[in-house]
Design a protein that fits this description.
Number of strands: 0
Radius of gyration: 20 Å
CATH topology: Arp2/3 complex 21 kDa subunit ARPC3
Largest sheet: none
Distance between the termini: 49 Å
Oligomer: single chain
Order of helices and strands: HHHHHHH
């Protein structure tokens, strides 16, 4: 197992524990909590690419599908997170400067895709009234939580980023050291 695999597995477990024990207990308007697992998959996909994002999304979603409190068809969450992870990674591979826009777009798209997949599988009452009440609250919660969660996950996955030296910095430093001696 590589360092990245270990990081991904640890990340999934920590995020799922935080989601169930902390975030789901908040009393947010609309009765919907932000989806930390979705945002963690997006952050991972932004750093590692489409293929890794899809694998991470599938693994995280499958684990979420089989662990309690799961109240949906097994595989539904795996499909949603796999799709979102793939799309986030693919867009990032084609446009490297689109990170914040991709993160917010996936935060909005996640609940919409989940509602669509749930409606297709007969799990979510896809009535207009239910969607009008739940979907805006879910999207708002994800959009508000996206910047800190995606940034933290991307930072953990990427590791320490060494600053790129400016062209003149090395020459100035070496000349200053030579003048001291």
């Amino acid at each position: 197992m590589t360092r990245r695999d270990t990081t991904a597995l640890s990340l999934i477990l920590v995020v799922m524990i935080l989601q169930v024990t902390v975030v789901n207990r908040f009393s947010l308007p609309g009765g919907v909590a932000p989806d930390l697992l979705l945002l963690a998959v997006v952050g991972y996909a932004l750093v590692c690419g489409a293929e890794s994002g899809a694998v991470m999304g599938f693994a995280a979603g499958l684990l979420d599908d089989i662990l309690p409190p799961a109240a949906h068809v097994a595989g539904q969450r795996a499909l949603v997170l796999c799709l979102v992870g793939y799309v986030a990674g693919r867009v990032m591979e084609s446009r490297e400067d689109a990170g914040p826009v991709v993160a917010l777009g996936c935060a909005v798209a996640g609940p919409v895709v989940a509602a669509a997949v749930g409606g297709l599988m007969g799990e979510v009452p896809a009535g207009a009234e239910a969607l009008r009440q739940l979907l805006p609250a879910a999207v708002a919660g994800n959009v508000l939580a996206a910047p800190p969660v995606v940034w933290t996950v991307a930072r953990l996955v990427r590791g320490k980023v060494r600053p790129v030296p400016r062209p003149g910095y090395t020459a100035l430093r070496s000349s200053a050291l030579r003048s001291r001696s």
